[in-house]
Amino acid sequence: MKKLALLTVLGFLTSSAFGQQNRIIERNTIGWYTYNGDHKLASRWLLHTEYQWRRIDLIRTWQQSLARLGAVYKLADRVKVSGGYTLFTTYPYGNYPSADAGVPTNEHRLYEDIQVSDKFGRLELDHRIRLEQRWQGEPSATNPRKTARWDYENRIRYQLSATFPLRGPSIDDGEFYLNAFDELFVSFGQNVGDNVFNQNRISGGLGYQLRDNLKVELNYFNRIVQHADPEPVSKTSIFDIDSGFRLNVNYDLDFTKK
How confident is the model at residue 100 (pLDDT cuts 50, 70, 90)? Predict the structure, then answer.
């Protein structure tokens, strides 16, 4: 019941934010190409590595670049905590680019999260709550390629993800599986603009396990993003609706093996 209540509240926040009547809608066709790896360093410690190559028009032009490095600690078989650093770059795209002055803008982040896994028969659910501390670069008026200042902002994220094997009780080598997730982003604290509701992502598709430490996933992907600043003339809120696909590779190494 607690999980159901939480999902209901999150869904209400998402729908109420997007339900504004006065808004500008920007639509983009995207292709996100991502890599994730959790590499075992000790019995309970892992090194997390991640890169996301985000493109507009499926692959034609830049949208964003994300590189992440972190440490993961297993509190229990189904509970993990982690933290780390993210370097994030946004490129100008669309009719209302959030990257100012026609040049890419950078962002530095620190993050902390906890992930809890549940299993119900063949269905596995993962709950992740992540806190982010964000330093967003503002370009200089005289030279846009230089950063004039760093604006600080906080954000909290909740993700519910699921995997379901298509053969047998578990996902084994050479087998397909279904996977999906939904994630809600909420900004808070000082320097937050219009986008207290920051964004929502939903994705679902097919995965294939080549071997125990290597999986490939191809998903339909959709996200709704609210810009921090309204359209400057009409002061109307701007929403991006990005839809396309996400190709993800999960590759884990075990550095404890001799």
Answer: low
For range 11-28, the mean pLDDT: 66
pTM for this one?
0.89
Query: What residue has token string 């993050």?
Result: 111
Cα gap 37→231, rounded to integer Å: 39
What is the pLDDT confidence band of residue 140, given thresholds at 50, 70 and 90? confident
Greatest pairwise CA separation for the chain in angstroms: 64
pLDDT tens-digit readout, 141-165 = 888 888 899 999 999 999 999 999 9
The domain of 207 spans 2-251
CA–CA separation, 214 and 68 (whole Å)? 19
At residue 220, the 3 state secondary structure works out as strand
For the record, the structure tokens of 171 come out as 């996902």
Contact 150, 106 (CB under 8 A): no
CATH code of the domain covering residue 86: 2.40.160.40
- 61 SS3 class: strand
| Domains held by the chain: number | 1
Question: How far is it, in rounded angstroms, from Cα 10 to Cα 145?
Answer: 38
